[in-house]
Amino acid sequence: MRGTRAAQRYAKAILSLAKDKNSAEAVHEDMHSISQTVLNSWDLEKMLTSPVVKNSIKKSALLEIFKDLDAITKGAIDILLENGRINILHLVARQYIIQFNEMNNVRQAVVTTAVPLDKDLESTVLSKVRELTGSEATIKNIVDEDIIGGFVLRIGDLQYDASVARNLTRLKRELKDNTYVSKI
Fold this sequence. Notes:
This protein is α+β, with helices and mostly antiparallel strands. 61% of the residues lie in helices and 14% in strands. The radius of gyration is 22 Å and the shape is elongated.
């Protein structure tokens, strides 16, 4: 993805400054808000990437949308505008979240289910992840009806597939290779 290396560098610098100023948690909340808002707003993303829209308009729009930003986050927006890199703001926000989570030993668990997770099931999954990995985790729920039922849990390189679709595929393979069933 274009701009990822630059986003990593900006995020690392912002995190370092935020740690020095004891504002890492507040900046993390800001970056989470920015990431989600830009991800969910096609218009905002197009405005930030448009070369036609002036930087002053971009800055005033961002400060109007995100009213309670930490001073470090506002400074980061100013630096990105000054360097002509405001188009990678959402990437910087995502990279900041990743680096912040790594610093605090928080992992991301991706849970794929056929239906959205409710709060009780989400807390059960979080406790299981804590038990398996020994670290805290955040959950990202992906809804995929193709798995029919059950779930697929991914944490880093670890994957646990308890989906109905996987079990059906395994059963089909076993029946296909069974010499008694193939004669019927």
